[in-house]
Design a protein that fits this description.
Layout (H helix, E strand, L loop, with lengths): L5 H8 L4 E5 H6 L15 E6 H9 L12 H17 L2 E7 L8 H25 L14 H11 L3 E4 L4 H11 L4 E4 L2 H4 L6 E3 L4 E2 L6 E6 L1 H8 L6 H8 L10 H8 L10 E2 L2 E2 L4 H13 L7 H8 L7 H19 L21 H14 L63 H12 L5 H8 L2 E3 L15 H4 L1 H11 L2 H15 L9 E5 L11 E4 L11 H6 L3 H14 L18 H11 L9 H12 L6 H6 L7 H23 L17 H13 L4 H4 L4 H15 L53 E5 L2 E6 L15 E5 L6 H10 L1 H5 L8
Parallel strand pairs: 2-3, 2-5, 3-4, 5-6, 11-12, 14-16
Antiparallel strand pairs: 1-8, 6-8, 7-8, 9-10, 12-13, 14-15
Helix pairs in contact: 4-6, 10-12, 10-14, 13-14, 16-17, 19-26, 22-26, 23-26, 23-29, 24-27, 24-29
Length: about 850
Amino acid sequence: MGVQGFQEYIEKHCPTAVVPVELQKLARGSLVGGGRQRPPQSPLRLLVDAENCLHRLYGGFYTDWVSGGQWNHMLGYLAALAKACFNGNIELLVCFNGAMEKGRLHEWVKRQVNERQTAQQIVSHIQNKGTPPPKVWFLPPVCMVHCIRLALLRFHIGVVQSIEDHHLEVISLCRENGFHGLVAYDSDYALCNIPYYFSAHALKLSRNGKSLTTSQYLMHEVAKQLDLNPNRFVIFASLLGNHILPDEDLAAFHWSLLGPEHPLASLKVRAHQLVLPPCDVVIKAVADYVRNMTDFSDLEAIANDIFRHSQSRTDDKVVRFKKAVEYYSAASKSQHFSPYQGKFTHLTFSLYRQSTVENHFKSVKQRYLNFSNENPDSPLLPSQANPTVTSPVAQGLEVIGHLNAQIPSLLSMPTRNHMDITTPPLPMVAPEVLRVAQHRHKKGLMYPYIYHILTKGEIKLSVTIEDEANQELPSAVQLFRPIRQHVYGVLFSLAEAKKKAERLAMRRNRLPEYSPVAVKEWAAYKGKSPHTPELVEALPFREWTCPNLKKLWLGKAVEDKNGRMRAFLACMRSDAPAMLNPACVPTHLLVLCCVLRFMLQWPGVRVLRGKELDAFLAQALSPKLYEPEQLQELKIDNLDPRGVQLAALFMSGVDMALLANDVCGQPIPWEHCCPWMYFDGKLLQSKLIRAIRDKAPLIDLCDGQVDQVNKVKKMRQSILEGLNFSPPPPPHPHAMPFYPPGGAFYPPPHMMPLQGRSRSMGMPRLPSMSSQGGKLEIAGTVVGQWAGIRRGRGRGGFPIQVVSSVVCNEEQPDAALDTLMKCLIPVTNYPLRKRL
């Protein structure tokens, strides 16, 4: 609705303003409508807004995206795209959205609500039909943004990230750095007088990789269709409804423009719900209103006129209307700031020499996959780009042939549908650390979360595919929250702050005082809406004192390098010797093994079963991983919903592992972090089906390759080192109580062996405690001991000391201790007796 509907309005109602173009021809000649004059042989320089182009950079809406992501297919597509741009004398700079954008938070909340509903539709579809969902339900695979960013860096395509306001920075970057055009799909750009504006949704690479086509929007034709002078687009955009002044606040104004005689007037109030007029009707009515203005510079008079029907918060609406005009005025000029100015002239082509490119493509082909110019490319239909949300009110529009838009209920879209909370003040961060964070953030070399955690103490986590009715698997937000808690602790150097507080308390002879550090997490998952954030406490490591962030990022000593790796492994709960042994865990599979090991340590229900662990490891070692053409031909019968959710969980873990790696100073080179080195969603689904449904042995999962079996066993042993991971007991043929797979295996009270019963009662006695007694260890520390008893008649044999070792949950030690003490009997398998 509002401004965001203007882009679709152009395509539906202004056909003469949408012109198909071939970018290679534009690079050889001039732009439609008379392009900027370029010196001979200079490249056509285009800025790409990645936020609107992610699905195209991923390779399109092919059906296997739901399996968790096919990253080598994406890599092949981007390789072909980079090659086509080089051969066609086209230079790209891709700008990712790295801004927190609190002003657009209500838009993000709406989007998360819609995507959460889509995720449930996807799960239901897979459960009922066992086939991939239709592409109108496309949800970006988890971590897709960062995978694309890493792939673009790999192929030496220029990458930047916005930092405060994504749209303003993209416009400023385009205007002030000599770009010939912008490739995007956002109404804000259309209304901000971008000289040469191309469609990101229509961007298509031909199958032979030689033709790159898209559509160009001719905004002077749009202005002609609307009969509106482009210099009034600022007022026009402000009155359509936008992120500053939402269309809900303009509903009364929009209905007043239509008048009581309009065919839609009867829909203004239906079932006691105020509704919004269709977007195309609003656009025409607002264009007529703005065209007939006598003085569009008198904002006070305009505000008084448009809000004369307002019944609440009129003063606030007037203020926000003026802010909207100010925003679009700044965006339409050459403008407020450019954090990238002067840094990107001929950026990529200075790196992109012909011999380098050819050698690089040969290297990629040999090491990973066969790139072919014949890779099929599925075209994208703009009408299928976004899932539609149905509304009961829309059913009343069937009799009106020219109105196809659905009218959402106003009550379903509150003006400000999120509620912020106050957090404790953030600790001070060293200025040089902030400079490094800002520099790497802008260059696209660091996770965007990091800068905003350091400066704002906030993070936004997008929806993933999960079945909210299924309690077998935790949500990704909850499962990997301990990683983020330790990441926050590393970023704010909590270990060093704790030591300082303890030294100060010792000098003053009093208890240490710790200032809590909390980060706001905006997320939507099972039982949690995105409208309010959660305060998540930052945690230091308990096992060791982590170096401060300055040493992790800027230290050059050997101990600093070792500290980076140890901090990363500690964040992932994978600080085991075998994890750093390349003979057991190859370097490019370290992220994979760390994520799987972390998933196995979830308390309560077991996230990964033994066969599923083998399937993850087998697909990472399969040669098919680097053959996307073969994987495209792979057929999967009856897609498993649990497998789809496991893939989404795993990629969420990879997302957090890459974040932890950046925070800890990148101890793992980014070339070894890329998911295409160890994961393909479709290949995983095929392995899971063979392992679980077909009961295939490990040798079959490894396609009969004995060396792969040995590697899988070594990695499995390294992952399980120090973990009490054992398969759950087989189900009993008769009805019996269900014991949680990951919990303590002790029977309920009515099944406990009674100590006073004789042998004649039919229940065999458990062997009694040895004469040496036993002890309970938690995290390597002895917390309880008990004495033995005298060996009586018939109780001969060797005395055995019982030692019980249990891993303690470091986030909740007290609760874990209580639980573990209750588990003492089943762990030791010896009943305790009262002493006489």
